[in-house]
């Protein structure tokens, strides 16, 4: 959730650190800071609020350390322990002021460690669990920083991604990870460290992704990697495939708007080379199993959180309908703790845009432990879930900077539909039906383009409802998870209380909440159950709630009598999920814009949830 940046090289460290933190703003944060080391001294600048405020504070500082240093660490904090203020912001110093550290993760036994340090006369000044760790590292120090870090990390319980430095050993950074991502960029005569590739991609494309319990020691002579308990390990240098320009807004006002309009191309990238029209199937070589292996899968379990879980629900419906395979979607946080029944004939599909979602990663490990076939569906190459599953499908959606997922979701659904097609062709689906469905998947980019052309019309509808504080989304079948996702998008970025319901659930309680200022977005696409959803929408209208009807092209009569209408292309039920959700993304975006909300960085939210 928080962001880490580190630098050691030849250039002015403070500039690189602040710029790196700026590139990590999308992850969500409430305070930020940097620490630089020069001439045997450490100077720290930190501030609650935005990176632009930190930049002003750094630029106005008279410190020669900040102006001359070529070594430093930086951090954006998303508050967990203690409020967002300057004391709780990172980097943290030890009591002596000789050690500085940034930390992502949770130290679960920090109270016990803090109590032990207090007995040694060492008092923490912040509310954070993180400060406890740097105090412990300083306490363990006996002349070698990596030894102190190793000893301290073996005493803690929890998760961490850390970068530590001390003025006792200038010219050295020690980095370690367990459960919180760390990527090390290797440049020319410089090394960059980050929790996310976007912070370092302008400087280098060569990177090493640390794995759990790795520790790296960076000096002017290079870098050595070992385990936390000091056993030597080897990690390969990989090429990052991100385009630095893709992580900039360009001509768009917000990243979210840019990413919505990128969806036709991102879906093309997700499906390119993965459809076999002659055989009527999908070619997903990353899954690493044959048609025979696929035919032996008896059940598919999909695990994910939030938007990824909604994408999994669309996949669940498609897999059951098309392949005749039992499919279930589990909230990843529940999966690990409820002791699920898993067999070797089960395929567990873990969906995560970042590939670092803590609950989903825990579900992956539980599924592997119980002998299931496990596959990852991720957007970030080299991410932990991608590495630990060892099989899966990359989305190729490109960087998604907006906290509210758009193009990653539509690519996730596209891949899930291809997975359903692959499984279906190993079972009961005839070739000609497979070819027809593959052609529909191929058409997804143009279907999305048709919806994006209605941007202005959807904006006009959104402005009518911008002052409403509550909204319902209703749908059936494939459109039920779309209703859930539409509601999530609205509440994420506009702070409107929005709920997604199966249309049949309205009369089981929620209809009591309807009022004249509670719009209902009814998904009346041309799918099975449309007439029943239409009836449910009319019941809402009878309670004086305004209804926005989403209908299929050629079936505009389905919206007769309702307040507003959004038309999406007419296509099969599984396919219509994608153009429909794009329409709801636009609706949410324009409502949030009309309300003056900070769309790319919604309050209290983080892009990648790397703690449970």
Question: Which key features would you list for this structure?
Answer:
Rossmann fold, alpha/beta, globular, 3 domains, 26 strands, six-stranded antiparallel β-sheet, Glutamine Phosphoribosylpyrophosphate, subunit 1, domain 1, 36% helix, eight-stranded antiparallel β-sheet, single chain, 612 residues, 22% strand
Give a verbal description of the structure.
By secondary structure, the protein is an alpha/beta fold. It has three domains: 238 residues, 4-Layer Sandwich (Glutamine Phosphoribosylpyrophosphate, subunit 1, domain 1), CATH 3.60.20.10; 199 residues, Glucose-6-phosphate isomerase like protein, domain 1 (Rossmann fold); 144 residues, Rossmann fold. 36% of the residues lie in helices and 22% in strands. It has 19 helices and 26 strands. An eight-stranded antiparallel beta sheet has the order 3-2-4-1-10-9-11-14. A six-stranded antiparallel beta sheet has the order 5-6-7-8-12-13, covered by helices on one side. Helix 10 links the parallel strand 17 and strand 18.
Topology:
Elements: E1 3-8, H1 13-23, E2 31-38, E3 41-48, H2 51-60, H3 64-68, E4 71-77, E5 92-93, E6 99-104, H4 110-119, H5 130-140, H6 145-153, E7 160-166, E8 173-178, E9 183-187, E10 190-194, E11 206-209, E12 214-219, E13 222-227, E14 238-239, H7 255-261, H8 263-271, E15 275-276, E16 281-282, H9 291-295, E17 299-304, H10 307-323, E18 326-331, H11 332-337, E19 346-352, H12 358-369, E20 373-378, H13 384-389, E21 392-394, H14 407-425, H15 431-452, H16 455-464, E22 470-475, H17 479-494, E23 497-502, E24 520-523, H18 530-542, E25 547-552, E26 564-568, H19 573-594
Parallel strand pairs: 17-18, 17-19, 19-20, 20-21, 22-23, 22-24, 24-25, 25-26
Antiparallel strand pairs: 1-4, 1-10, 2-3, 2-4, 5-6, 6-7, 7-8, 8-12, 9-10, 9-11, 11-14, 12-13, 15-16
Helix pairs in contact: 1-2, 4-5, 5-6, 8-14, 8-15, 10-14, 10-17, 14-15, 14-19, 15-19, 16-19, 17-19
């Amino acid at each position: 959730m928080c962001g880490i940046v580190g630098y050691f090289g030849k250039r002015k460290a403070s500039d690189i650190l602040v710029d790196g933190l700026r590139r990590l703003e999308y992850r969500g944060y409430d305070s930020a800071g940097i620490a630089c080391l020069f001439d045997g001294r450490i100077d720290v600048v930190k501030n609650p609020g935005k990176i632009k405020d930190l930049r002003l504070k750094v630029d106005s500082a008279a410190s020669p350390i900040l102006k001359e240093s070529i070594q430093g660490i930086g951090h954006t904090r998303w508050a967990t322990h203690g409020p967002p203020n300057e004391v709780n912001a990172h980097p943290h110093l030890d009591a002596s002021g000789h050690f500085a550290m940034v930390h992502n993760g949770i130290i679960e036994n920090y109270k016990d460690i803090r109590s032990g340090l207090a007995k040694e006369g060492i008092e923490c000044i912040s509310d954070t669990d993180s400060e406890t760790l740097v105090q412990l590292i300083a306490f363990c120090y006996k002349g070698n920083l990596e030894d102190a870090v190793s000893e301290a990390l073996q005493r803690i319980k929890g998760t961490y991604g850390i970068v530590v430095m001390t003025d006792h050993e200038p010219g050295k950074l020690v980095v370690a990870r367990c459960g919180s991502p760390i990527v090390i960029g290797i440049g020319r005569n410089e090394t960059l460290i980050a929790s996310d590739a976007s912070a370092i991609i302008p400087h280098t494309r060569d990177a090493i992704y640390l794995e759990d319990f790795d520790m790296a020691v960076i000096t002017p002579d290079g870098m050595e990697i070992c385990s936390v308990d000091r056993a030597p390990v080897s990690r390969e240098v990989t090429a990052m495939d991100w385009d630095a320009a893709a992580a900039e807004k360009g001509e768009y006002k917000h990243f979210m708007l840019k990413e919505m309009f990128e969806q036709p191309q991102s879906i093309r990238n997700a499906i390119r080379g993965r459809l076999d029209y002659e055989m009527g199937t999908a070619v997903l070589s990353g899954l690493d199993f044959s048609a025979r292996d696929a035919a032996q899968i008896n059940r598919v379990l999909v695990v994910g959180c939030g938007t990824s879980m909604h994408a999994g629900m669309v996949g669940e419906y498609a897999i059951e309908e098309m392949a005749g395979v039992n499919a279930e979607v589990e909230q990843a946080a529940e999966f690990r703790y409820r002791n699920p029944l898993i067999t070797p004939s089960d395929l567990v599909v873990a969906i995560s845009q970042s590939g670092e979602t803590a609950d989903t990663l825990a579900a992956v490990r539980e599924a592997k432990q119980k002998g299931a076939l496990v596959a990852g569906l991720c957007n970030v190459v080299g991410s932990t879930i991608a590495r630990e599953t060892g099989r899966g499908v990359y989305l190729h959606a490109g960087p998604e900077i907006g906290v509210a997922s758009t193009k990653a979701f539509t690519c996730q659904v596209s891949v899930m539909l291809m997975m359903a097609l692959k499984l279906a062709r190993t079972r009961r689906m005839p070739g000609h039906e497979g070819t027809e469905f593959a052609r529909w998947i191929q058409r997804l980019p143009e279907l999305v383009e048709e919806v994006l052309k209605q941007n202005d019309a959807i904006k006009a509808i959104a402005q009518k409802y911008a002052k409403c504080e509550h909204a319902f989304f209703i749908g059936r079948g494939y459109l039920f998870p779309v209703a859930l996702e539409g509601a999530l998008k609205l509440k994420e970025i506009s702070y409107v209380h929005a709920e997604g319901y199966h249309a049949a659930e309205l009369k089981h309680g929620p209809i009591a909440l309807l009022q004249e200022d509670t719009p209902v977005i009814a998904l009346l696409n041309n799918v099975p159950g449309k007439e029943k959803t239409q009836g449910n929408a009319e019941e809402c209208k009878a309670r004086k709630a305004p209804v926005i009807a989403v209908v299929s092209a050629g079936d505009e009569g389905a919206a007769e009598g309702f307040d507003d209408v959004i038309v999406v292309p007419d296509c099969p039920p599984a396919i219509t999920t994608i153009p429909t959700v794009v329409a709801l993304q636009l609706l949410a975006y324009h409502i949030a814009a009309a309300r003056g909300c900070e769309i790319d960085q919604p309050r209290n939210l983080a892009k990648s949830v790397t703690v449970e």
